[in-house]
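Many introductory courses stop at the sequence. We go one step further.
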Amino acid sequence: MHTGTDVTAPLAHQAGGPLQGTAGNDPANARDQPRDATTVHQMGLLAHQRGDAPAAAELIRQAIAMAPRTAAFHGSLGIVLLGMQRAQEAAAAFRTAIRLQPGDFGAHAYLGAALAALGDYDGAAKAAGATLRLRPGDAAALHMRGVCEEKAGRYGQALATLDAAILADPASYTARLSRAALLLAMGRTPEALDAFDAAIPLCPSDTRARQSRILAMNYLPGSTMRDIADTARRLAPAAPVGYVPASFPDRDRSPGRPLRIGYVSGDFRNHPVGYFLHSVFAARDPQQVVVSCYSNTQVEDPMTARLKALVDHWQPIFNLDDAQVAAAIRADDIDILVDLAGHTNSNRLSVFALRAAPVQAAWLGYFGTTGLAAMDVVIADRHVLPPCDEPTFGERVVRLPDSYLCFSPPAEAGPVAPLPAGLEQPITFGCFNSRAKLNPGVLAVWARILAAVPRSRLLLKAAQYSDKILRREIAHAFAASGIPPERIQFEPASPIAAMFDAYGRVDIALDPFPFAGGATTAQALWMGVPVVSLVGATWPGRQGASLLHAAGFPDWAVSDADSYVALARRLAMDRPGLVAVRRTLRAAVADSPLCQADRFARHLEAAFRNMWRVYLQASA
């Protein structure tokens, strides 16, 4: 899900700064002349303009050595280092520039950008505050502070700040986009949809608001597959007018050779895509597929390292434009290019619109039609995409036999804890899904469950619950249904190992609707926690059922709210049964198709082989 836009760079750009302006004539033409600090600094600026960041940094450091108290030189060095992804050093340079010239608006703004790149969102928000003291009401500074406040977990405060940014500059596309994404994260989906609609006309050429609008439809109760598909076709990226797609006449057409599969994602990391992808890569047959990954993010973590070790080729693409990415993929002779993001954050569907490979398929990271005319296939299963919904897809539907997901047992997960309620303590229900999925209908049904199970409690754990305003909103919703606040517990997000440990405090997991859990459902099952899921009318509303069927527990997926409440109560009232489930669930899941990576990989490779045959026949 989009959780906001990166506004630190736009703010820094608007701030002005040492690298803006001209550097004058190239001093390199006068190498034999004496050089003062200003001349060397100008040489560094020119090197930066040429794209030679290492040379720029070295020259600017030389200028600093000659004139160490020149604030502009330190600011220039920080900008170069920030562009080199050396944010820690950049922040130090900007702090020096500020110490030497405290009133430099640009240095404060760039310091915010560097701190945000380091994940220090509190520090970045304070830097934005410093810029606002220098330029009260500056729209870009307000925007940056609002986004950083959100990322620091202060959602209510962030909304007020973004409202102020829009008041200061009503035509700001990025501020409106950030506000819309924030509303979605806060569970205010109807308002978010209106906000995305308001942003789209301000920058029609930018795809972010349009794609976020498509994504947000999946959170809206009452949305149908037809509604979402119509929105996708209307707002999805498209190739430029007059663009002629590439053809692939020289491609080796041998039907049985290993296929070159390319995966495109911004989520090759500790993310649901990484969790579901890891074991599939580990189980692949190199005689059938050669795998390349095109990574659209600078973020790397231990999961990234694991994935890199399992594939044949890895290329970062976050710094390349669409035409460059498409050219690189074509140069690699990729046969089947697989999108793993859909309309979620960090996607590159615009590359697929340019036809980068003979066959293009969507899988794993999204849950519906992409709306792209150039997307050939969508990979699904019979649970998430029944035949009745197939006409809403422009892509050809390929169904895997079990589930379209394969869960990788996580290295960070510890042993299953004993049932926290035991035989006598109150039952704790839990949901670790994003606040965005908890609409008023979900909260009302959960209140019925708490009323039906005496003394029971509900543990909600997600990033948004660091914010007291959001906690208070939910507590009030339950209080209106007769559930006192002390029965609702909140925890913010935590590192992944601690998140798994938190399942040791949950007896039964409750799946939200109409957007059910994916990774959260599989993780709960792995930690011995049964999951109650309500089967919806859309793909994301059915992914819980897909996982539960593959895991061997189809009875935990029910078709209506009354059955959902009844199942939760029945599980809660059967303490010996819960104890037995807790003791045996992980082993059952491990032995099920949900975790049988070899089985899943063979099915996926067979699907790829069939896609290739269809292409060969159609292009003969």
